[in-house]
């Protein structure tokens, strides 16, 4: 609410000062605020109003115009209007490449990455791979291989390779993303933990159930410490599905393999990442198991 009030005051000030660019920028910011508030119809009105104003005042290929075009693309994707989102992204990309910024500018590369995300939603996996690889190559050149934006595209490639059934390639991407995020952000950062969870999903698909359990439990512990309740629930659901696939006998076999290394009284995943029988029993209870 405070953000809305401040922005409204700024808009009135800009009107009073007859600063056309400032008014349009404030309208665009108001659209972003509406997106954050979940008011997507109101956001669309603001973005369209800002876009029309920028086109008239600055031209269709000015960076401010293209920024609002990109914002509309993000909004349409959120609304499920994928064809409209694609039009906006392609327009923004063409404008940036040809006129405004060039093909290797980070804003251009982020738009390429966004197109990859969109193509995944549309089921165009081959096109998505092309976009991700292009974005990755550009980011590696411009930002370096261990920059966080580069690593997010690496993680996106991992997700895509899972969808394509290329599990070995997916594992390479996830492990690269994980190592980079651990170095850049730390092992407990939520972005790092998201990749840990993704590895758990992958290992489950590969039938590496013990490795999947390690990843899930590491992710769960980290999200619990961060009080990220939504992510905790996602990981708990993943653990429940894993234990269902394992079955009681498999769980007991895995537990027996690791209990010879000594009991631990806390859920300290340590080098092995396997909880004791008592800790797994408590986890079962938390997950609603008996």
From TrEMBL:
Keyword Aminoacyl-tRNA synthetase: no
Keywords: TPR repeat
Pfam families to which the protein is assigned, alphabetical: TPR_10, TPR_12
Ranges of the TPR repeats in the UniProt entry: 24-57, 66-99, 109-142, 151-184
Cross-referenced SUPFAM superfamilies: TPR-like
Name assigned to this protein: Kinesin light chain
Organism annotation: Venturia inaequalis (Apple scab fungus)
